[in-house]
Amino acid sequence: MTPILELKNITKAFGPVKVLTGVNFDLRPGEVHALMGENGAGKSTMIRIAAGDHRAEEGEIRLDGDVRRFAGPREAQAEGIIVVHQELLLFPALSVAENVFLGHQPKTAAGLVDWGRMRREARDLLDRLDCPNLDVDQKVSRLSVADRQRVEIARALSRNARVLIMDEPTAALAEADVKRLLEVVRRLRSEGVAIVYVSHRMNEIFEIADRVTVLRDGVSVGTKPIAEVTEASLVSMMVGRDIHQLFPKEDIPRGEKRLELRSVSLAGVVEDISFDLHAGEILGIAGLVGSGRTELAQTIFGVTPATSGEILIDGKPQKIASVREAIDAGIAYVPEDRGTHGIIRAQPLRENVSMAILDRLTKFSVVDTGREQSLASDAIKRFSIRARDARQRVGQLSGGNQQKVVLAKWLATDPKILILDEPTRGVDVGAKTEIHRLMGDLAKKGLAILMISSELPEVLGMSDRVLVMREGRLSAIVDRKDASPAAVGAAMMQGRREPARAGAAR
Amino acid sequence: MTAMTRILIRHEFILGILFVIVLFAMASQNDRFLTTANLLNQARLMTEVGLIAIPMTFVIVTGGIDLSVGSILGLCAILLGVFWQNLGLPLPAAIGLSLAAGTAAGFANGLIVTRFRVPPLIATLATLALYRGLAEGISQARSVRGYPDWFAVLGRGDFLGIPTQLWLFALVAAVGIFVLRFTTFGRTTYAIGNNEAAAEFSGLPVVRTKLLIYTASGFISALAAIVFVSRVSTTRSDMGSGIELEVITAVVLGGTSIFGGRGMVIGTLIGLCLMQILQNGLSLSGVRGDGTTVVIGAVLIVAVLISNLLSRFSSD
């Protein structure tokens, strides 16, 4: 059978960073082809190339066996290659029908929008997706995440999708909605639509996929029929090594108790969290997106102060009502969203590194630029930040180096407790290893580290204990020796019945 | 790129060159222009706008705007007259109270912007109407005249051969340059303008800084009101109306980004002088007032265009 879509020997680089090297991928009509790989493995880039968003430097794209070059996403869409993005690209203020047909509304003879036909056709598409309860006149802003996703899929179908690329479609869905989504995927497959299904979730892959391709560090490791792989073999294909070898975790004796939470809550977001964190310990926090991990971290850090419960530092109750108080209490927080909360792109490296300790670098409130400069130079050396000099604007650095700037900024505060929220997200493999090694060194020096991560291998590989969160609550604390993907995964997922709340899903 | 080229393509430097060109162009047009007497008189005339432009630079660097400065000026001018003439207070006390009122008006702006999170454009647009309305209500369209001679020294007198209010302006400008350039407060101001959330996450006192900046804006507007009243020795409720646009023009012409995060007090000063000599030079050459406005608008656009064009060549 001729593949409907084929990528051959694709190579793509962004500046000096090679993202894909000689990647091959083929998609047959009426199959669900799973695409797997760690964050940063090159999945998103590959999807973008297939959808005409990016152009590959080398290699070719074949559609129905013919070599094609897409000048832009519109050309790919015209051929029926449609992407359903992870972050749904809908217009909240418009109705369901308007969203479905945005950009290709049916027109009347006079050239005006044919509202009747548009609503009718939107209705038909939604029925095809088995959602008869979704009102085509409803504003999208009022829909749940799951319903928005259906609208997005309907939108893809309205463009006569032959190739549907779904980028982590279940990342923000509750269990019941995942089941319904898989049902929709099966239905589309039986209609002959070819589907690329990107997901981290093993059980979905085994339930739905016909074949699976694994990417690692921009190289395709292999394509196999689903019957020939097991969960373990997929993980080792993705990671390349045994998890515990990949992470330079050292055994560090547990020191005294640094941080203790006693039934801390942030009304409506984080409920009744109690745990303790010791010097020299790395405590991982696992949980799905929207489980309240980041919200918990920001509560400890005083961004959104706790509404009830007690936080103890070194055994003494500590009121943390603001970020300033948290910093003064010895807490540092490396945020999840680096661009928004971590760095100031337009300002030089040295001003970023000194930002959290400006008050300590001053004499009569005048900034001591000499000390600031030496602080920045030391940081560049210590973290091997690849920057021209301390005056370079942080926005010009790569993701990994930006992350090191954020780490340098927070370690400059000389914290006792370090909270790392997705410390290696959007960071290349080399910098990732450096960051992991740094975490080990810091723990050895007696820092207490709280690490949030969406990458299960990272959580399992780096943590002494794993705290699992689910729907704003603590669902389990697992010791390193018992922490298997299955045990932690089960604690993340179990009992998920409620649909994901819009607020919690952010 | 060397440090030298970095300085050469700065907006402030280009503006300085533009200033010199305009200065010579105007001087060659008219021999009454480049005289000490004329230049000092022009400096006297620009002091009120100049004073307010200093805190306005801070406001715009945070990414905000303060449209109410002209109304605060009007309100404080009226209050000065009312306190002195209608309530019979001694003039120094009236000045003190008027300054306090302006400070309070600025503080109110700051509260609306920080506590209630109203966008500065909307908040100060509302207080622009509010403070002007108050000024008109209090004055009942009466003007106050007959200020004592000693008071006129501030607005019309000289000290060491230089207009008195220019010393005051120099002091405020020097404080502005120092605070924005060298202190943690200035650093916080830039951080807020570039990325307010990151500033908050770094434990910087975002709310306090913004509150102080809007309060200072109110205080300096009141100070400008005192200078204004002294210079024209009368108070009317429409004083300072529209001055906010001149102030903002000077600041933006001076290279401060209206989106925040970028700008220097020194740029504002050059922008201010450029505007003033354009106005003066053109009117001396017989160009009518509306013609002058057109030229200033054109200069603003050209300055911003050149600066944008050059910043594309520089990687930082």
Automatic annotation (TrEMBL), chain A:
SUPFAM superfamilies linked to this entry? P-loop containing nucleoside triphosphate hydrolases
Q: Which InterPro entries match?
A: AAA+_ATPase, ABC_carbohydrate_import_ATPase, ABC_transporter-like_ATP-bd, ABC_transporter-like_CS, P-loop_NTPase
Q: Which GO terms describe its molecular function?
A: ATP binding
Which keywords are on file for this protein? ATP-binding, Cell membrane, Membrane, Nucleotide-binding, Repeat, Sugar transport, Translocase, Transport
Check the record and name the SMART domains matching this protein.
AAA
Q: Does the keyword section mention Secreted? A: no
Listed CDD domains: ABC_Carb_Monos_I, ABC_Carb_Monos_II
Specify the ABC transporter domain's residue ranges: 5-242, 247-496
Pfam families according to UniProt: ABC_tran
What is the top-level taxon of the source organism?
Bacteria
Q: Which family does it belong to?
A: Belongs to the ABC transporter superfamily.
**How is this protein named in the record?**
Sugar ABC transporter ATP-binding protein
Organism, per UniProt? Jiella pelagia
Automatic annotation (TrEMBL), chain B:
Reply yes or no: does the keyword Membrane apply.
yes
User: Pfam families, from UniProt?
Assistant: BPD_transp_2 (PF02653)
Q: Chief localization class?
A: membrane
Print the keywords alphabetically. Cell inner membrane, Cell membrane, Membrane, Transmembrane, Transmembrane helix, Transport
Q: Quaternary state and partners of this protein? A: The complex is composed of two ATP-binding proteins (LsrA), two transmembrane proteins (LsrC and LsrD) and a solute-binding protein (LsrB).
Described purpose of this protein according to its UniProt entry: Part of the ABC transporter complex LsrABCD involved in autoinducer 2 (AI-2) import. Probably responsible for the translocation of the substrate across the membrane.
Q: What is this protein called?
A: Autoinducer 2 import system permease protein LsrD
Q: Which organism is it from?
A: Jiella pelagia
